[in-house]
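Question (not urgent): is this output format expected?
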Amino acid sequence: MTTTNNLSSTQKKFDCLAFKQKAQAQTYRDTNAMGSQELVDYFRKSSHSGVLGDWWKTIVH
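Got this back:
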């Protein structure tokens, strides 16, 4: 059984794995020298800002 690969006829608009890896690499660069409390503060601040923070505010009473 042969399969044809039609990737050449379509363009990839979003590469989820590349996006995830880039985000993880940036987080590592931002946090690799932080202590425990600094990490807690970093992730707390990150989770309260941006799209995630906006969404969280809509579901928290």
